[in-house]
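Subject: design request, 413 residues
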Protein backbone atom coordinates (compact mmCIF):
# COMPACT_ATOMS: atom_id res chain seq x y z
CA UNK A 1 0.00 0.00 0.00
CA UNK A 2 1.13 3.59 -0.40
CA UNK A 3 0.25 7.27 0.00
CA UNK A 4 1.25 10.08 -2.36
CA UNK A 5 0.47 13.78 -1.98
CA UNK A 6 1.13 17.04 -3.73
CA UNK A 7 0.42 20.72 -3.40
CA UNK A 8 0.58 23.04 -6.40
CA UNK A 9 1.54 26.60 -5.51
CA UNK A 10 2.33 29.75 -7.42
CA UNK A 11 6.09 29.27 -7.02
CA UNK A 12 6.23 25.53 -7.64
CA UNK A 13 5.07 22.11 -6.50
CA UNK A 14 5.66 20.07 -3.36
CA UNK A 15 5.48 16.28 -3.73
CA UNK A 16 5.75 13.43 -1.21
CA UNK A 17 5.30 9.66 -1.19
CA UNK A 18 5.58 6.72 1.17
CA UNK A 19 6.15 3.39 -0.57
CA UNK A 20 4.53 0.59 1.40
CA UNK A 21 5.44 -3.00 0.58
CA UNK A 22 6.36 -6.30 2.26
CA UNK A 23 8.65 -5.75 5.27
CA UNK A 24 11.65 -7.62 3.85
CA UNK A 25 11.25 -6.18 0.34
CA UNK A 26 14.28 -3.93 0.40
CA UNK A 27 14.44 -0.88 -1.85
CA UNK A 28 17.44 0.96 -3.18
CA UNK A 29 18.22 4.19 -5.02
CA UNK A 30 19.05 3.60 -8.66
CA UNK A 31 20.62 6.29 -10.87
CA UNK A 32 20.19 5.60 -14.59
CA UNK A 33 21.89 7.94 -17.11
CA UNK A 34 20.47 9.33 -20.34
CA UNK A 35 20.92 6.75 -23.08
CA UNK A 36 20.54 6.39 -26.85
CA UNK A 37 19.39 3.12 -28.44
CA UNK A 38 19.49 1.79 -31.99
CA UNK A 39 16.36 1.44 -34.05
CA UNK A 40 14.55 -1.81 -33.24
CA UNK A 41 16.00 -2.19 -29.75
CA UNK A 42 13.92 -4.16 -27.24
CA UNK A 43 13.43 -3.55 -23.52
CA UNK A 44 12.76 -6.24 -20.92
CA UNK A 45 10.62 -4.85 -18.11
CA UNK A 46 9.67 -6.82 -14.99
CA UNK A 47 7.57 -9.42 -16.82
CA UNK A 48 7.27 -8.52 -20.51
CA UNK A 49 9.40 -7.19 -23.33
CA UNK A 50 8.44 -4.06 -25.29
CA UNK A 51 10.07 -1.87 -27.96
CA UNK A 52 12.67 0.55 -26.64
CA UNK A 53 12.62 4.22 -27.64
CA UNK A 54 15.61 5.84 -29.34
CA UNK A 55 16.42 8.15 -26.40
CA UNK A 56 15.75 7.91 -22.66
CA UNK A 57 16.14 10.63 -20.01
CA UNK A 58 18.34 10.36 -16.94
CA UNK A 59 16.36 9.19 -13.93
CA UNK A 60 16.73 8.59 -10.21
CA UNK A 61 14.53 5.78 -8.91
CA UNK A 62 13.59 4.17 -5.62
CA UNK A 63 12.76 0.61 -6.55
CA UNK A 64 12.26 -2.79 -4.93
CA UNK A 65 15.38 -4.86 -5.47
CA UNK A 66 13.69 -7.51 -7.64
CA UNK A 67 11.74 -5.24 -10.02
CA UNK A 68 12.74 -3.42 -13.18
CA UNK A 69 10.22 -0.68 -12.39
CA UNK A 70 10.17 1.72 -9.47
CA UNK A 71 7.82 2.84 -6.71
CA UNK A 72 8.77 6.49 -7.07
CA UNK A 73 11.31 8.57 -8.89
CA UNK A 74 12.23 11.65 -10.86
CA UNK A 75 14.03 12.55 -14.08
CA UNK A 76 16.42 15.21 -15.31
CA UNK A 77 13.52 17.51 -16.28
CA UNK A 78 11.94 17.48 -12.80
CA UNK A 79 9.09 15.11 -13.66
CA UNK A 80 8.38 13.22 -10.43
CA UNK A 81 5.91 10.34 -10.04
CA UNK A 82 4.51 8.10 -7.33
CA UNK A 83 2.18 5.16 -7.93
CA UNK A 84 -0.50 3.44 -5.85
CA UNK A 85 -2.05 0.00 -5.91
CA UNK A 86 -5.80 0.32 -6.44
CA UNK A 87 -8.41 -2.42 -6.31
CA UNK A 88 -11.03 -2.48 -9.02
CA UNK A 89 -13.77 -4.68 -10.41
CA UNK A 90 -11.87 -5.09 -13.65
CA UNK A 91 -9.96 -8.41 -13.91
CA UNK A 92 -6.21 -8.26 -13.33
CA UNK A 93 -4.14 -9.66 -16.19
CA UNK A 94 -1.69 -12.45 -15.37
CA UNK A 95 1.03 -10.64 -17.29
CA UNK A 96 1.65 -7.12 -18.52
CA UNK A 97 3.39 -3.95 -17.41
CA UNK A 98 3.33 -3.43 -13.66
CA UNK A 99 2.48 -0.03 -12.22
CA UNK A 100 6.14 0.29 -11.28
CA UNK A 101 7.19 -0.43 -14.88
CA UNK A 102 4.77 2.23 -16.11
CA UNK A 103 6.20 4.76 -13.68
CA UNK A 104 9.80 4.18 -14.78
CA UNK A 105 8.89 4.16 -18.45
CA UNK A 106 7.07 7.48 -18.08
CA UNK A 107 10.09 9.06 -16.37
CA UNK A 108 12.50 7.77 -18.98
CA UNK A 109 10.33 8.97 -21.88
CA UNK A 110 8.73 12.26 -20.76
CA UNK A 111 9.83 15.88 -20.42
CA UNK A 112 6.71 17.15 -18.60
CA UNK A 113 4.06 15.82 -16.27
CA UNK A 114 1.41 16.04 -18.96
CA UNK A 115 3.60 14.04 -21.34
CA UNK A 116 4.16 11.42 -18.62
CA UNK A 117 0.41 11.00 -18.19
CA UNK A 118 -0.01 10.47 -21.93
CA UNK A 119 2.88 8.00 -21.97
CA UNK A 120 1.32 5.84 -19.24
CA UNK A 121 -2.08 5.84 -20.95
CA UNK A 122 -0.57 4.87 -24.31
CA UNK A 123 1.48 2.06 -22.77
CA UNK A 124 -1.58 0.64 -20.99
CA UNK A 125 -3.58 0.81 -24.20
CA UNK A 126 -0.89 -1.07 -26.10
CA UNK A 127 0.45 -3.57 -23.55
CA UNK A 128 -2.00 -3.66 -20.64
CA UNK A 129 -1.05 -3.79 -16.98
CA UNK A 130 -0.61 -6.96 -14.99
CA UNK A 131 1.73 -9.50 -13.49
CA UNK A 132 2.46 -10.24 -9.87
CA UNK A 133 3.54 -7.22 -7.83
CA UNK A 134 4.33 -8.77 -4.47
CA UNK A 135 7.35 -10.47 -2.91
CA UNK A 136 5.61 -12.62 -0.29
CA UNK A 137 2.36 -13.36 -2.16
CA UNK A 138 3.38 -14.20 -5.70
CA UNK A 139 -0.17 -14.24 -7.00
CA UNK A 140 -1.00 -10.74 -5.76
CA UNK A 141 -1.62 -8.19 -8.49
CA UNK A 142 -3.52 -4.93 -8.83
CA UNK A 143 -4.25 -1.94 -11.00
CA UNK A 144 -2.63 1.44 -10.43
CA UNK A 145 -3.12 5.11 -9.87
CA UNK A 146 -0.41 7.74 -10.25
CA UNK A 147 0.35 11.21 -8.97
CA UNK A 148 2.46 12.91 -11.64
CA UNK A 149 4.15 16.25 -10.98
CA UNK A 150 6.63 18.65 -12.54
CA UNK A 151 7.72 22.13 -11.40
CA UNK A 152 4.58 23.76 -12.83
CA UNK A 153 1.64 21.32 -12.48
CA UNK A 154 0.43 17.96 -11.25
CA UNK A 155 -2.08 15.33 -12.30
CA UNK A 156 -3.89 12.36 -10.79
CA UNK A 157 -4.17 9.42 -13.20
CA UNK A 158 -6.37 6.52 -12.10
CA UNK A 159 -6.74 3.23 -13.96
CA UNK A 160 -8.90 0.12 -13.94
CA UNK A 161 -7.54 -2.38 -16.44
CA UNK A 162 -7.33 -0.44 -19.70
CA UNK A 163 -9.76 2.25 -18.51
CA UNK A 164 -8.50 5.53 -17.06
CA UNK A 165 -9.46 8.93 -15.69
CA UNK A 166 -7.28 12.04 -15.31
CA UNK A 167 -7.65 15.04 -13.00
CA UNK A 168 -5.45 18.13 -13.00
CA UNK A 169 -4.56 19.10 -9.45
CA UNK A 170 -5.70 22.49 -8.20
CA UNK A 171 -4.15 23.26 -4.83
CA UNK A 172 -3.55 20.23 -2.60
CA UNK A 173 -4.30 16.59 -3.36
CA UNK A 174 -3.53 13.19 -1.89
CA UNK A 175 -4.13 9.69 -3.20
CA UNK A 176 -3.96 6.29 -1.53
CA UNK A 177 -5.02 2.75 -2.39
CA UNK A 178 -8.48 3.56 -3.67
CA UNK A 179 -9.96 5.27 -6.69
CA UNK A 180 -10.95 8.88 -5.98
CA UNK A 181 -11.95 10.60 -9.24
CA UNK A 182 -15.69 11.20 -9.20
CA UNK A 183 -17.65 8.91 -11.49
CA UNK A 184 -14.65 6.70 -12.23
CA UNK A 185 -14.35 5.57 -8.61
CA UNK A 186 -18.04 4.71 -8.29
CA UNK A 187 -17.95 2.72 -11.51
CA UNK A 188 -14.80 0.63 -10.98
CA UNK A 189 -13.90 0.36 -7.25
CA UNK A 190 -13.73 -3.01 -5.52
CA UNK A 191 -15.29 -1.91 -2.25
CA UNK A 192 -14.19 -4.86 -0.10
CA UNK A 193 -10.48 -4.80 -0.95
CA UNK A 194 -10.48 -1.00 -0.86
CA UNK A 195 -11.92 -1.09 2.65
CA UNK A 196 -9.41 -3.65 3.92
CA UNK A 197 -6.59 -1.41 2.67
CA UNK A 198 -7.79 1.36 5.06
CA UNK A 199 -7.05 3.81 2.26
CA UNK A 200 -10.07 6.03 2.89
CA UNK A 201 -8.91 6.77 6.44
CA UNK A 202 -5.36 7.46 5.31
CA UNK A 203 -6.40 9.59 2.35
CA UNK A 204 -8.77 11.67 4.48
CA UNK A 205 -5.98 12.31 6.97
CA UNK A 206 -3.26 13.14 4.41
CA UNK A 207 -5.65 15.39 2.49
CA UNK A 208 -6.30 17.44 5.62
CA UNK A 209 -2.57 17.67 6.35
CA UNK A 210 -1.38 18.50 2.83
CA UNK A 211 -3.91 21.33 2.56
CA UNK A 212 -1.94 23.05 5.34
CA UNK A 213 1.52 22.23 3.98
CA UNK A 214 3.61 25.05 2.55
CA UNK A 215 7.20 23.85 2.90
CA UNK A 216 9.32 20.73 2.56
CA UNK A 217 9.40 20.12 6.30
CA UNK A 218 5.60 19.86 6.36
CA UNK A 219 5.69 17.09 3.76
CA UNK A 220 8.30 15.20 5.77
CA UNK A 221 6.10 15.38 8.85
CA UNK A 222 3.08 14.08 6.93
CA UNK A 223 5.02 11.02 5.83
CA UNK A 224 5.89 10.34 9.48
CA UNK A 225 2.29 10.74 10.65
CA UNK A 226 0.77 7.98 12.78
CA UNK A 227 -2.60 9.71 13.15
CA UNK A 228 -3.97 12.63 15.13
CA UNK A 229 -2.31 12.77 18.55
CA UNK A 230 -0.35 9.54 17.99
CA UNK A 231 3.41 9.28 18.51
CA UNK A 232 3.52 5.60 17.57
CA UNK A 233 1.42 3.36 15.32
CA UNK A 234 -1.86 1.85 16.42
CA UNK A 235 -2.25 -1.77 15.34
CA UNK A 236 -5.29 -3.67 14.16
CA UNK A 237 -5.20 -7.46 13.97
CA UNK A 238 -6.84 -7.16 10.54
CA UNK A 239 -4.33 -4.83 8.81
CA UNK A 240 -1.68 -3.83 11.34
CA UNK A 241 -0.72 -0.16 11.16
CA UNK A 242 -2.36 0.53 7.80
CA UNK A 243 -4.53 3.25 9.28
CA UNK A 244 -1.89 6.01 9.04
CA UNK A 245 0.46 7.37 6.40
CA UNK A 246 3.57 6.02 8.15
CA UNK A 247 2.59 2.38 7.73
CA UNK A 248 3.84 -0.38 10.02
CA UNK A 249 3.23 -4.04 9.26
CA UNK A 250 1.63 -6.55 11.59
CA UNK A 251 -1.87 -7.42 10.40
CA UNK A 252 -3.09 -10.99 10.00
CA UNK A 253 -5.14 -10.33 6.83
CA UNK A 254 -3.33 -7.39 5.25
CA UNK A 255 0.16 -6.27 6.17
CA UNK A 256 2.35 -3.59 4.63
CA UNK A 257 5.37 -1.60 5.73
CA UNK A 258 6.70 1.75 4.54
CA UNK A 259 9.97 0.67 2.91
CA UNK A 260 11.02 3.99 1.35
CA UNK A 261 10.03 7.68 1.39
CA UNK A 262 10.53 10.65 -0.93
CA UNK A 263 9.88 14.40 -0.73
CA UNK A 264 10.44 16.77 -3.65
CA UNK A 265 10.50 20.57 -3.77
CA UNK A 266 9.85 21.22 -7.46
CA UNK A 267 10.46 24.85 -8.30
CA UNK A 268 11.63 26.04 -11.71
CA UNK A 269 15.39 26.37 -11.51
CA UNK A 270 15.56 25.15 -7.89
CA UNK A 271 14.56 21.48 -7.74
CA UNK A 272 15.49 19.57 -4.61
CA UNK A 273 14.80 15.95 -3.65
CA UNK A 274 14.95 14.43 -0.17
CA UNK A 275 14.80 10.67 0.40
CA UNK A 276 15.28 8.17 3.18
CA UNK A 277 16.62 5.27 1.12
CA UNK A 278 15.42 3.22 4.09
CA UNK A 279 12.21 1.95 5.68
CA UNK A 280 10.00 3.67 8.25
CA UNK A 281 10.31 7.46 7.80
CA UNK A 282 9.52 7.90 11.50
CA UNK A 283 12.88 6.24 12.27
CA UNK A 284 14.80 7.56 9.24
CA UNK A 285 16.70 10.66 8.21
CA UNK A 286 15.74 12.45 4.99
CA UNK A 287 18.82 13.15 2.90
CA UNK A 288 19.36 15.23 -0.27
CA UNK A 289 19.82 13.57 -3.66
CA UNK A 290 20.16 14.81 -7.21
CA UNK A 291 19.58 13.17 -10.57
CA UNK A 292 22.87 14.55 -11.88
CA UNK A 293 24.96 13.53 -8.86
CA UNK A 294 24.96 9.71 -8.59
CA UNK A 295 26.28 8.36 -5.29
CA UNK A 296 27.86 5.03 -4.45
CA UNK A 297 25.68 3.93 -1.52
CA UNK A 298 26.94 0.36 -1.49
CA UNK A 299 25.56 -2.83 -3.02
CA UNK A 300 21.90 -3.32 -3.86
CA UNK A 301 20.05 -5.24 -1.13
CA UNK A 302 18.02 -8.44 -1.37
CA UNK A 303 15.42 -9.92 0.99
CA UNK A 304 18.22 -11.24 3.21
CA UNK A 305 19.80 -9.11 5.89
CA UNK A 306 23.39 -8.03 5.29
CA UNK A 307 25.81 -5.53 6.75
CA UNK A 308 26.84 -3.96 3.47
CA UNK A 309 23.56 -2.58 2.08
CA UNK A 310 22.23 0.73 3.32
CA UNK A 311 18.65 -0.54 3.59
CA UNK A 312 19.44 -3.49 5.84
CA UNK A 313 21.82 -1.56 8.07
CA UNK A 314 18.96 0.80 8.83
CA UNK A 315 16.64 -2.13 9.56
CA UNK A 316 18.60 -2.82 12.72
CA UNK A 317 17.77 0.69 13.88
CA UNK A 318 14.17 0.61 12.61
CA UNK A 319 13.26 -2.78 14.05
CA UNK A 320 15.09 -2.05 17.27
CA UNK A 321 13.22 1.23 17.82
CA UNK A 322 9.81 -0.27 17.09
CA UNK A 323 9.98 -2.51 20.16
CA UNK A 324 9.03 0.59 22.15
CA UNK A 325 9.01 3.60 19.86
CA UNK A 326 7.92 6.17 22.43
CA UNK A 327 10.89 5.33 24.66
CA UNK A 328 13.61 4.24 22.23
CA UNK A 329 12.88 6.88 19.60
CA UNK A 330 13.59 9.54 22.19
CA UNK A 331 17.25 8.49 22.22
CA UNK A 332 17.88 10.20 18.88
CA UNK A 333 14.78 11.81 17.32
CA UNK A 334 15.65 15.30 18.56
CA UNK A 335 19.15 15.03 17.06
CA UNK A 336 17.75 13.77 13.78
CA UNK A 337 15.21 16.58 13.60
CA UNK A 338 17.89 19.18 14.32
CA UNK A 339 20.04 17.83 11.47
CA UNK A 340 17.10 17.87 9.06
CA UNK A 341 16.16 21.43 9.97
CA UNK A 342 19.72 22.60 9.34
CA UNK A 343 19.91 20.74 6.02
CA UNK A 344 16.56 22.05 4.80
CA UNK A 345 17.58 25.61 5.67
CA UNK A 346 20.96 25.27 3.94
CA UNK A 347 21.15 22.11 1.81
CA UNK A 348 24.56 20.41 1.90
CA UNK A 349 26.18 18.55 -0.95
CA UNK A 350 24.52 15.11 -1.20
CA UNK A 351 27.75 13.18 -0.68
CA UNK A 352 28.56 15.13 2.49
CA UNK A 353 25.04 14.66 3.86
CA UNK A 354 24.99 10.92 3.25
CA UNK A 355 28.39 10.51 4.88
CA UNK A 356 27.17 12.35 7.98
CA UNK A 357 23.95 10.34 7.98
CA UNK A 358 25.96 7.10 7.89
CA UNK A 359 27.95 8.07 10.93
CA UNK A 360 24.92 9.31 12.84
CA UNK A 361 22.83 6.21 12.13
CA UNK A 362 25.67 3.97 13.29
CA UNK A 363 25.72 5.87 16.59
CA UNK A 364 21.94 5.79 16.96
CA UNK A 365 21.78 2.08 16.20
CA UNK A 366 24.31 1.38 18.91
CA UNK A 367 22.38 3.48 21.43
CA UNK A 368 19.05 1.85 20.64
CA UNK A 369 20.23 -1.76 20.59
CA UNK A 370 22.22 -1.32 23.79
CA UNK A 371 19.00 -0.67 25.70
CA UNK A 372 17.08 -3.58 27.15
CA UNK A 373 13.50 -2.77 26.19
CA UNK A 374 10.24 -4.59 26.67
CA UNK A 375 8.41 -4.92 23.36
CA UNK A 376 5.22 -2.93 23.88
CA UNK A 377 3.49 -3.97 20.66
CA UNK A 378 0.54 -6.37 20.65
CA UNK A 379 1.45 -10.05 20.71
CA UNK A 380 0.28 -10.69 17.14
CA UNK A 381 2.58 -7.87 15.93
CA UNK A 382 5.55 -9.25 17.84
CA UNK A 383 4.99 -12.69 16.32
CA UNK A 384 4.64 -11.18 12.83
CA UNK A 385 7.98 -9.41 13.08
CA UNK A 386 9.75 -12.38 14.68
CA UNK A 387 8.85 -14.42 11.60
CA UNK A 388 10.09 -11.72 9.19
CA UNK A 389 13.33 -11.28 11.11
CA UNK A 390 13.87 -15.04 10.95
CA UNK A 391 13.12 -15.15 7.22
CA UNK A 392 15.63 -12.36 6.60
CA UNK A 393 18.26 -13.79 8.93
CA UNK A 394 18.25 -10.60 11.00
CA UNK A 395 19.41 -10.93 14.59
CA UNK A 396 19.12 -7.68 16.51
CA UNK A 397 21.33 -9.02 19.29
CA UNK A 398 24.44 -9.46 17.13
CA UNK A 399 27.05 -6.80 16.48
CA UNK A 400 27.77 -5.44 13.04
CA UNK A 401 30.35 -3.27 11.34
CA UNK A 402 30.03 0.48 11.44
CA UNK A 403 28.70 2.35 8.47
CA UNK A 404 31.12 3.83 5.93
CA UNK A 405 32.48 7.25 6.88
CA UNK A 406 32.47 8.47 3.27
CA UNK A 407 29.95 8.32 0.45
CA UNK A 408 31.65 8.69 -2.88
CA UNK A 409 30.12 10.19 -6.01
CA UNK A 410 30.28 7.94 -9.05
CA UNK A 411 31.05 8.90 -12.60
CA UNK A 412 28.69 11.61 -13.80
CA UNK A 413 26.23 11.14 -16.63
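Subject: RE: design request

Done. Sequence follows.
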Amino acid sequence: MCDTLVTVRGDGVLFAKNSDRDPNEAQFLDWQPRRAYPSGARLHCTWIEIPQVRQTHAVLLSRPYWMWGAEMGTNEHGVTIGNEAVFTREPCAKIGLTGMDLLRLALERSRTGAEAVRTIIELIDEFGQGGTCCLERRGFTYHNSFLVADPREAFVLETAGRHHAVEEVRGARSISNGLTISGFAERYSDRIKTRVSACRRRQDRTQQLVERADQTRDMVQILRDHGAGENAPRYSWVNGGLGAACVHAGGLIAASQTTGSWVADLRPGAIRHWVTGTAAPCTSLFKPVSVDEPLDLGPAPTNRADEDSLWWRHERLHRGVMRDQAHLGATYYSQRDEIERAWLASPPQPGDAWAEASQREAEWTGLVLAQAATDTRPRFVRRYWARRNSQAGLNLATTHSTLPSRVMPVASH
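The longest strand covers residues 12-21.
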